[in-house]
Amino acid sequence: MALRGVLRLGEVRIRVLDMEAACRHYGDHMGLLKVMTDADGMTYFKAWDEHDHHCVVLRKADSAGLDYFAFKVYDDKTLTALEGKIKEFGLPVERIAAGVYAKSGRRLQFVLPSGHTMQLYAEKEQIGNTLGTINPGVMPDEGVIRGFRINRIDHLLLGGVNIDENARLFREVFEFDLTERLIDADSKASLALFVSCSTKPHDVAFVLQPNPNKFHHVSFLLESVSDLVHAADMIGKHRIPVEVNTNRHGITRGATIYFFDPSGNRNEVFTGGYVHYPDTPTLTWDTSALGAAAFSQDNTPRESFFTVLT
Ligand code: FE2
Fold this sequence. Notes:
alpha/beta; 2,3-Dihydroxybiphenyl 1,2-Dioxygenase, domain 1; 8-stranded mixed sheet; 6 helices; 17 strands; 19% helix; 35% strand; globular
């Protein structure tokens, strides 16, 4: 399957309690590039190797968490086709006109069975990665790659109810593949489901939680394990609260670090993982191997990892 439907996670809007502290974290420390502040005081960031205008929007609020997440689709025709399919699945779809969201074409918005607000869009202003598109070279100017050396936004983990229905929506309507799942060893109930629209081990995942609409983490891609160690050094230097230092997931095989922003939202930086193809079989883990599934270098699940969400 050529990638011509839903392309990738393109945008998250995160609620933060203190905008100044959040900008220090996502901008100065993590090294995302601040591209804009809008009239409502929301702050926009991009990772260096993304062409689109922004991927992270911060909104000051009284509680932390995720306002919405948005996937980019290939073109407007795809958006039109998906609107009908989402309605057929049984979800009401709200149409949002071009320009309502900054630098963006029209959007579709709907609420997932898990309670999360999701958007789809086909157009966003592209400002490039500073290399240009003619003989672009490989290294931007000094100072463009900074902080944790993040290449791009990668995926989300969302906590909520009805995660089997979420996975069914993503498979039947958005044509994602179910790449991996974690099930209860006794009841066989789904505890976590990983779905991909690309060759990545996941583009989004859902973890079962007692409450709807919870945010587990947003993840950013680093180029190498040496950049992961560099990020770990930066996390220590800036006294950023760490949940899990350098480790590797059994599920997805990504090498990872988990830490928190100043509002308590969980972030991840990661590198690696296998290449998924549409004919790759779904991998199943059960709770008898929970430690290895979660953190394969010490085979130890962290309780907070399954209970702390915003
Ligand atoms: Fe992740």
